[in-house]
Amino acid sequence: MSDLLERLRGRGWRMTSQRRVVAEVLDGDHVHLTADEVHARAVERLPEISRATVYNALGELVSLGEVIEVSTDGRAKRYDPNAHHPHQHLVCSSCGTVRDVHPAGDPLADLPATERFGFTVAAVEVTYRGLCPSCARASA
Amino acid sequence: MSDLLERLRGRGWRMTSQRRVVAEVLDGDHVHLTADEVHARAVERLPEISRATVYNALGELVSLGEVIEVSTDGRAKRYDPNAHHPHQHLVCSSCGTVRDVHPAGDPLADLPATERFGFTVAAVEVTYRGLCPSCARASA
DNA sequence: ATCCTACAATGGACAGAGTCCAAGTCAAGA
DNA sequence: TCTTGACTTGGACTCTGTCCATTGTAGGAT
After folding, report:
1. Which has more confidence, B33 or B95?
2. 3-state secondary structure of A98
3. Distance A123 CA to C3 C1' (A)
4. What is the rounded distance in angstroms from the CA atom of residue B70 to the CA atom of residue B34?
């Protein structure tokens, strides 16, 4: 799915070596990295890339709708490159691993107008929490 | 609903003036305060209470299951004293206000076993996002 | 191919939220 | 009242993330 770079360029995103590396890191293993993890992987390819640049690039990708920001806990935000396929998240309460999941049903439809208090409801996020297999084994 | 203090004492929670004040702040207006907001209100009643003590007390109340920790965004966690009535949250994307809501349906049941990847799923959080009436008016 | 310039990268200082710890204080049982 | 283990304090520290002045460069214009 490496037309990400094409899409970005087509949208007038000025392509620099730093931005390319950040986009490639996200486009790689389909995991949910924190900003510092993205930075660490970017540094492997472009040793002098700065933290600020990674934060900037991530913020832009989020604004462009190419990446979703996920705050699963009070700790670091994670970046989910799977923005074009609606999905929810399953988070390990112990190690913080995140997996994409596809529940049945439409939670938006489950919120009746009487429970909306005049809000303009735009989106819904569902986060399932539990223990991943390896943490469950470790705590047994 | 001020049997909160009774419940805590009955569970062997050593009652100090600081803990009492924190519990009373949460037991007051039924809003979703950040730790620093709790601290600010606690200081009004007990001027020398420290931030660390408020954090400790909040953490203990969460462990005891009396209060729920809500991380709605990457900012400060909020503390929800309505732990004994299952509910979900409706968050204003602009000002961060949180309201409790009660959607129909059971999202836990919507996650088929094939989408659980061996996790022991224990809980589900649903966060509706949108604009509250006053922010919607301001941005119009 | 070279020049220009607006946009991007840098890195260090700064800020917000939260944790840690050694020393002092106190609730509550004996 | 005494004792003691649990609690509180406040300041230093960590972790995430943001800001900004300076330096560098992508990519259109010539």
Report:
1. B33
2. strand
3. 49
4. 9
Model confidence, pTM: 0.88
Q: Which of A125, A86, A101 is nearest to B91 (CA)?
A: A125
* Whether residue A140 has pLDDT greater than 70: no
Six token digits for residue B2: 């001020």
Q: How confident is the model at residue B3 (pLDDT cuts 50, 70, 90)?
A: confident
DSSP B17-74: HHHHHHHHHHHSS---EEHHHHHHHHHHHSTT--HHHHHHHHHHHHHTTSSEEE--SS
Distance CA(B38)–CA(B22), nearest Å, equals 7
pLDDT in the model for residue B1: 47
Determine the average pLDDT of the residues in A21-49: 94
Please measure the distance between the N-terminal and C-terminal CA atoms of chain A and give it in whole angstroms: 40
Residues of A within 8 A of B127 (CB-CB) are: 124-127
Cβ pairs A/B, distance under 8 A = 133
SS3 of B104, please? coil
Buried b (16+ CB within 10 A) or exposed e, B94-120: eebbbbbbebeeebeebbeeebeeebe
Q: Which residues of A touch B104 (CB under 8 A)?
A: 110-112
